[in-house]
Design brief:
Blueprint: H1 3-12, H2 17-33, E1 42-45, H3 51-57, E2 65-69, H4 72-82, E3 85-88, E4 101-107, H5 117-127, E5 128-139, H6 147-151, H7 160-170, E6 172-180, H8 185-194, H9 209-227, E7 237-244
Helix pairs in contact: 2-3, 2-9, 5-7
Length: 246
Amino acid sequence: MEAGEYQKLDRLETDMWWYRGLHRQMAQALVRHLPQAPRGPVLDAGCGTGGLLRHLSGEIGGRNPIGLEINPEAASRAAGKSGAVICVGSVNSLPFATASIAAIVSADVLCHARVDPAQALAEMSRVLMPGGLAILNLPAYDWLRSAHDRQVHNARRFTRGSVRPLLAAAGLRLHRSTYWNSFLLPAMVARRVLSRGEAGKSDVMEYPPALNALFGAVLAAERGLVGAGLNLPAGGSLLVVARKDV
């Protein structure tokens, strides 16, 4: 990710509709499935500047939150924002003991150019306790790659079909996968197509308050459907819940 993107992320992730929706979507999945996971720490693998980790801290029932971030400046920002212990390192080689983590969340990390998805998932499987939980958010559809992906160094996007064999190879059993950011997908497609030839622009920006509120309400409605058990058939992102077999 470009240095300027970390600064924008740190400034905007608390209030921007996309990050609020992402954090709440992942928290909802974690809260629903965490009671079935063993007791132990919860790791945010690729925690960026700490917004998701801060949001999760009030949701995990006294479990110890830990962050991992490869960028030292972002890791410092994450520590200040979340109050959690943040380790500097790569998801390709997690600096944690085998079977020491109860649950892992990872938001838009396996897509990054510096990440080997197969290696990162193998490492997640290694550090998870038997019965441990992995909740992943992934950008969907490689044909949606655009200027945004170039700016944040996304090298790949995913589908339900492409994720399943990666999880299986790492020893993780797919429990659920659903697309989301579905209702806004047509607008996303239009923007990505129109910006395909542009350079140096990401979708992380300050939106007008009315538009920010509208988009946030759309994601809240989707979150209600996903929370009710509906797997959405298409969307800009893919939410994956997997477990390490006992």
